[in-house]
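Protein Entry — a single chain follows
Next Lines — sequence and tokenised fold
***
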Amino acid sequence: MPSLRPQRSRRATVAAAAVAVAGTAVVAFAGPANAATGHPHHANLMHTPHSSAARTIALEFIDNVNQAREAHGLPPVATSPRLTAIADRHSRHMAERRQLVHNLGLPNILGNWVELGENVGEGPTEGDVHQAFMQSAPHRANVLDPRYTQIGVGVMTDASGQVWVTEDFRRPARGTLAFESSMRQIHEMTAHHANARQHG
């Protein structure tokens, strides 16, 4: 994966992974960008995934994902606590090592899924990383994949202020509690947005 530079003075590095199921699960992870630049020692962390600051940044990523989907006529993705917990742990893992890598165990950690995808990135701000995702075809494809119904975002900020993010996407198997929950959330979000537009 190339190193992406949304602005000349800033750098955001991203990597994407997509998982598809066609009879047998097929996992395809794109190689991370610039992973070899990581430091072997753990980094000091400014915001851990469970801090209010990290959660605020994570919500900004989710809002931007759903705004991009809405702009392309797609339904929103619902937030999954399970995916969020997994993304939180992975972002902490990357930030502590200052190494951009994918969670290769994701397909085995989660059960009852039909589609899985992952974007990972790091950059100066949430906006820089999201812009880099949207300017890279594999990451943009994950954000705009109409098959996904759930998202979990984990954010970690290291001592230098660099934002490390994991976006995990999933479509749960039909008939599972996760599937029913995501469909209910999506229906509620869609109805809320339609009502807001009507009275706006």
Observations:
- Residues 177-198 form the longest helix (22 residues).
